[in-house]
């Protein structure tokens, strides 16, 4: 991979692993060491949000705002911010192959859907420029359908985890059974 663009809840684990304050955003505390190892191994290819749409509560009607850098105490990150979206969009538009697995925020709530809908738009535009764009996983499929761009990407797969395992080169039981039957 040339770049791994991380958003959504996963980003807060990586940011915390780097020592950044994440307010009370969802963080997998038991994965901090693994996140540090991945960041080191990726040698700068993992990109993390530089700004966030934050709120005091996980609710569509919660007052929200954009913050750059650290997330203050009492707030949680619920979407990537506009600066992050612009940077991620530029990476997607410059790519020849894009695999999207996971939304950038809580796209089910309108105030926190901008990052995810912006990425869906970028994928559609990248496809139009000739890139291979693959969307995988239940939440990603729901997001691309909600955006209306599902017919403007190369492939949509409901099997997110299985898709990633396949791309890793793992043998999938269903594929193995089909191969053995031939």
List keywords for this structure.
42% helix, three-stranded antiparallel beta sheet, 7 helices, 182 residues, three-stranded parallel beta sheet, alpha/beta, 8 strands, Rossmann fold
What features would you describe in this structure?
The chain has one domain: Rossmann fold. It is built from 7 helices and 8 strands; from the N terminus they run E-H-H-E-E-E-E-H-E-H-E-H-E-H-H. The longest helix is centred in the middle third of the chain and has 15 residues, at 114-128. It is globular. Helix 1 (8-17) packs across helix 2 (32-42). The strands form 3 sheets. Strands 4-3-5 form a 3-stranded antiparallel sheet. Strands 6-7-8 form a 3-stranded parallel sheet, with helices on both faces. With 182 residues, it is of the alpha/beta class. It has helices at 8-17, 32-42, 82-93, 114-128, 138-147, 160-168, 173-181; strands spanning 4-5, 46-47, 51-55, 64-68, 76-80, 97-100, 132-136, 155-157.
Summarize this, please?
The protein is an alpha/beta fold and 182 residues long. The protein contains seven helices and eight strands, in the order βααββββαβαβαβαα. It has helices at residues 8-17, 32-42, 82-93, 114-128, 138-147, 160-168, 173-181, and strands at residues 4-5, 46-47, 51-55, 64-68, 76-80, 97-100, 132-136, 155-157.
Mean pLDDT: 92
The domain count comes to 1
Strand portion, in percent? Answer: 15-25%
Strand tally is 8
The side-by-side strand order for the widest beta sheet comes to: 4-3-5
Main sheet characteristics: 3 strands, antiparallel
What overall geometry do the principal axes of the alpha carbons give? globular
Task: Provide the CATH topology.
Answer: Rossmann fold
Counted by DSSP, the helix tally is 7
């Amino acid at each position: 991979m040339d770049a791994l663009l991380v958003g959504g809840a996963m980003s807060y684990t990586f940011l915390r692993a780097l020592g950044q304050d994440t307010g009370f955003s969802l963080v997998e505390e038991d994965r901090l060491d693994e996140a540090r190892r991945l960041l080191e191994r990726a040698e700068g290819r993992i990109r993390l949000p530089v700004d966030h749409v934050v709120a005091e509560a996980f609710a569509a009607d919660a007052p929200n705002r954009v913050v750059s850098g650290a997330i203050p105490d009492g707030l949680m990150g619920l979407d990537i911010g506009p600066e992050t979206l612009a940077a991620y969009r530029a990476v997607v538009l410059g790519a020849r192959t894009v695999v999207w697995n996971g939304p950038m925020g809580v796209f089910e709530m309108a105030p926190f859907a901008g990052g995810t809908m912006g990425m869906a738009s970028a994928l559609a535009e990248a496809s139009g420029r000739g890139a291979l764009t693959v969307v995988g996983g239940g939440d990603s499929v729901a997001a691309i359908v909600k955006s209306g761009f599902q017919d403007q990407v190369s492939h949509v797969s409901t099997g997110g985890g299985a898709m990633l395992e396949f791309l890793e080169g793992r043998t999938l039981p269903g594929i193995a059974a089909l191969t053995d039957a031939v």
